[in-house]
Amino acid sequence: MGIFSKTCEYAVRAVFFIAQRTADGSRVGIKEIAVNIDSPEHFLAKILQDLSRRGIIQSVKGPNGGFYLDAQSLARPLSDVIEAVDGGGIFRDCGLGLKECSSKNPCPLHHDFLDVRNRLQNMLESITISQFNEDLNLGIVVLKK
Amino acid sequence: MGIFSKTCEYAVRAVFFIAQRTADGSRVGIKEIAVNIDSPEHFLAKILQDLSRRGIIQSVKGPNGGFYLDAQSLARPLSDVIEAVDGGGIFRDCGLGLKECSSKNPCPLHHDFLDVRNRLQNMLESITISQFNEDLNLGIVVLKK
DNA sequence: ACAATAAAAGATATTTATATCTTTTATTGT
DNA sequence: ACAATAAAAGATATAAATATCTTTTATTGT
Ligand code: FES
Ligand code: FES
C-alpha cells in the first residue's frame, strides 16, 4: 500500500476522470471510467456507489445515465474524497501508531510528522477536483499506465 | 492503515525501544519489548526476526540473550528500518497508484506529491535510531499509549 | 553432560482489503 | 405499458495483513 489505500487511489483517479469527462454536462458510465483509469470495474462500482451515497459525486440510472459532478462537487477539495474513502486518519493519526497523537506525550517522530502531515493536508485541501481538467485534456497529466 | 503498515509501526517503535534500553550494552527480551511498546508479542517476534536476519538489529539466544543494537545499527538512519519492513515504495511510488511515477507522464498530483515524499524521505534519512534515547529516558517522548 | 533460557522457525488462525459475479431498482425512449 | 439501459445492491470469492500457538535451535551457567 502507498500513502492511500488502493480503494482511495481508484476513487481519486475516477473522480478526476469524471470531472474531465463530464465538464460539458454529460455522464460517463462505470465501464468507461474503469477502462480509462485502469481499475477493476466491479470494484470501482462499489467505490463510486459509496461516493454517490455520500454526495461526493452524482449519478443517474438508466439510458444516458452514468456518473457526473455538479457544480458544488466540481469545486470540492480533493481532501473530501480522501476523507470519504480512507477517513481522515492520514491527517490526524500518529505516524507510529500510538493511540492518540498529541504534543502531550508525543512519539519520537511527532514533531517531524506533524510537519509532513500538515503539508499533505494543506496540499489536498487546496486542490480541487476539477482543477486538472485542462491538463488532462492536453495530456499533460494522465490517470493510467 | 496509516502512512506505514502496522508491522512497520511496531518495528520502528521496537527499534527505538531497543536502542534506549540497550545503550549500556545489555540485551532486552521480546516480552519486555512487546509490553513496553504495546504490541502483540508473537507478531513482534516475527518482525524482529526479520530485522535481525537483515542485520538491522542484533540478537543472541539463550540466557541473558535478547535483542540489542551494535554501534553501526545505532547510527543507522530510520529510513533503513522503513525500507526493510515496508520497502521503499513510500519514497518512490506514485501517490495515485500509477504503475510508475515519473515526470514523463505524471499523474495530476505528481508535482505536489514529490515534494511531500521528498520531505518525508529527508526526514527519515536524517533521523538516527539512537537519537531519541535521551528523550525517551526523560519521558519527553513515549512509545506507547 | 544437563537444565534453563530465549530467540528462530514452522504451522495455523483471524481479520481486513481487494475483487468478482448475480440480481434488483430506477430511468429513459418508444 | 414495454424494452433497453445503467447504476444500486447483494452475495461470494480471493489475497494480503495481522495475529497466535507450537516446536526447534542456539547459548549459557552449573
Ligand atoms: S504522537 Fe506520533 S505523530 Fe503525533
Ligand atoms: S506519477 Fe503520481 S506521484 Fe509521480
Automatic annotation (TrEMBL), chains A, B:
<protein>
    <submittedName>
        <fullName>Rrf2 family protein</fullName>
    </submittedName>
</protein>
<dbReference type="InterPro" id="IPR030489">
    <property type="entry name" value="TR_Rrf2-type_CS"/>
</dbReference>
<dbReference type="InterPro" id="IPR036390">
    <property type="entry name" value="WH_DNA-bd_sf"/>
</dbReference>
<dbReference type="InterPro" id="IPR036388">
    <property type="entry name" value="WH-like_DNA-bd_sf"/>
</dbReference>
<dbReference type="GO" id="GO:0005829">
    <property type="term" value="C:cytosol"/>
</dbReference>
<dbReference type="GO" id="GO:0003700">
    <property type="term" value="F:DNA-binding transcription factor activity"/>
</dbReference>
<dbReference type="Pfam" id="PF02082">
    <property type="entry name" value="Rrf2"/>
</dbReference>
<dbReference type="InterPro" id="IPR000944">
    <property type="entry name" value="Tscrpt_reg_Rrf2"/>
</dbReference>
